[in-house]
Structures are given as structure tokens and as C-alpha cells.
Amino acid sequence: MMFRATVLTLYxxxxxxxxxxxxxxxxxxxxxxxxxxxxIRDFATDRHRTVDDTPAGGGAGMVMRADxxxxxxxxxxxxxxxxxxxxMSPRGKPLTQERVRExxxxxxxxxxxxxxEGVDQRVIEARGLEEVxxxxxxxxxxxxxxxxxxDAVVRLLPGVMGNEASGDEESFENxxxxxxxxxxxxxxxxRSIPEVLTSGNHKKIAAWRRAEAERLTAExxxxxxxxxxxxxx
Length: 233
What we know:
With 233 residues, this protein is α/β, with parallel strands linked by helices.
């Protein structure tokens, strides 16, 4: 099953962007996944290709129109399309590694990139859009967030990472932040690689890495320790 991503945007030239490089780019070229960027303005009906209007009830900014967006969504995701419909939004549910893995195991995603003050609530409800946030901050539009989400998903597709096991101990995979990493040279600016990592004792190395992961998590993300583990360790 090939992963198919369709991005609805006012700026299709932003894609593939960084997704055309490195792991994601090689996978895209190899046909491991497919990316389509759809211009929302193509579904406007007036000669100015208008996609927004003033907010009902007054206020600053503009709101993306439900009728235009619905036509774009219906074109990209007709009836029977099994892919989830996502809306990149700062008020959405925070994106987690667990959700990333769910998406990577599925057929793909249809991703709507909001702009202006937001999207008419009626199209969110009528087309079953899942609002997704990549953090507690505001971007100029949903495109950078869509790139982040797709990068996180594509690297988990079968065959994309050279060593499939390389993702098993990454941050958030087992409910902890990742342990520190070291490589040659052994000495650098009077700093040494911890002796346990050069001991050859794999049991001690595993215990050290686990302890360091727990220490970093307690210092930087204690909220993660209050959650049940998401993967067996």
C-alpha cells in the first residue's frame, strides 16, 4: 500500500520543499510515497478567485470560505477515500509520535493548510476535518506545519530509514526523551566519551542509556513521566 499525501494550499510551490531532499526526497523519487499539492484557488467561482471573506460578527482579518474549501476537499478526497482529512491548526490536538505512527501505517492523508484568521467552522464539521497542531505557537499558514507532519510520517514508512531499528530508541518512542549520543574522537576539548560506552558491556550500556533518558526526561519533560508508556521497552 503506497502512502498518498494530498495537500490543499494557496501556495503549492512550497511543496515538496524540504520533503524533496534527504530520506523523504529519495523515498518520493523511488515511489515509496506520493505527494500532490492542490491549489485551493482553482475551486473559487469568481474571476478574482476569492477564497476568503470577512468574519461573521466582525473582527480583524479574513476567514477561508466553506464553499470553496468544500469543493477543494471533495475533489481531493471523493467519497470512499479512506485517508483521514487533517487541518493544520494551532487549536488542534497536539501531534504525537503515536499519531505519526498511526498515519504512517495508513493509506495517506489529505491535509488542508489554513491561512488568514482561520477556516469556516462549518466546513470543518461537514467534511470531518481532524485539527492537528505541531506546537503552541502561531505560523503564517499551515504549510510549514504540513511539511513537519509529513516529514515525521514519511521517515517511518517501510524502507525509508536504512536501519529500521534506528527509530526504536528515539525521543517519544518509549515515553522518554532520547539518551545522549557520542562518537569519535575519544577526546575533544578535554571532554571524554563516557567510559561505559567504550566498555563493550552491552548490558551496562543499555542500563546507562536508560538512566540517562530518564534523567533528561525528568529535567526537561516531566509531563512525559506521568503518562503510561506507549511502546514496550
